[in-house]
Amino acid sequence: MPKDTRDVADVTTDPASAAAGKTAVLYRMALPDHLCPSGQKARWLLDRHGYEVDDRVFRERPEVDAFKKEYDVPTTPQIWIEGERVGGYDALRQKLTNYDPKATTYNPVIYLFAVAAATALALSIGFLGAVTWQTLGWFISVSMILLGMQKLRDIESFTTMFLNYDLVARKWVPYAYFYPWVETAAGILMTGMMLTWLAAPAALVIATIGAISVFKAVYIDKRELKCACVGGGSNVPLGFVSLTENLMMMGMAIVMLVQIFV
User: Fold this and answer.
1) What integer pLDDT is reported at residue 103 of this predicted model?
2) In angstroms, rounded to a whole number, what is the distance separating the alpha carbons of residues 3 and 18?
3) DSSP 22
4) What is the sign of the dihedral through the CA atoms of 208, 185, 107 and 130?
5) Do the Cβ atoms of 47 and 26 come closer than 8 Å?
6) Whole-model pTM?
7) Is residue 18 predicted with pLDDT exceeding 80?
8) Phi then psi dihedrals of residue 247, to 5 deg
9) Strand, helix or coil at 35?
């Protein structure tokens, strides 16, 4: 524990009067069977932003229950800054970092493509000893695997979002459930350069349908939707990212098919 951590039993000062200036009062749980992770993160976040933290730790469950009843709060941690109650960890994060859980963001896609690029470079340098055109192919196929896994992580949420715009899924619901499996499997086969005769046509079909669906929804119908490309529940806007995903799949599938017949 930090040196300024104190048990609640040792503290009698009201939190609203204790916190002033660049100081904060933090109430959190550290029970024998439960060390609250949100409380730990709240302490770390306050320290990172330069607050002197009056860290008040509950060691027993009755202390937690009494605190929640006294201040009419549903849970801990609870934080006071400059004499005013901020709330729990999520409220603290919003206050100190301007974090908005509903804000539009491309971060999930950026992180995913960065990992795919690093993996493609590692495969290319490790097995081929150089960066070649195959590096681009691996980047696309690994991206397909990662994107497919994101969809499969919560397939119900994905299908709900997917049905908002995919033309085939809206006519035949099972297609929404097949799509991430086909994308993942095609990515795996393309990465291993196996069964190209199966993987390439499968990728080409779903990518073509996807590209047409996204183009119609965004650029013709002018609809503002969230993209299901990184799974359900994401705040990535439908448009350029999803269209790029599908165009990359189409391009790689066409190149692989051409290689088969040339």
Assistant:
1) 67
2) 18
3) S
4) negative
5) no
6) 0.76
7) no
8) -70, -35
9) strand
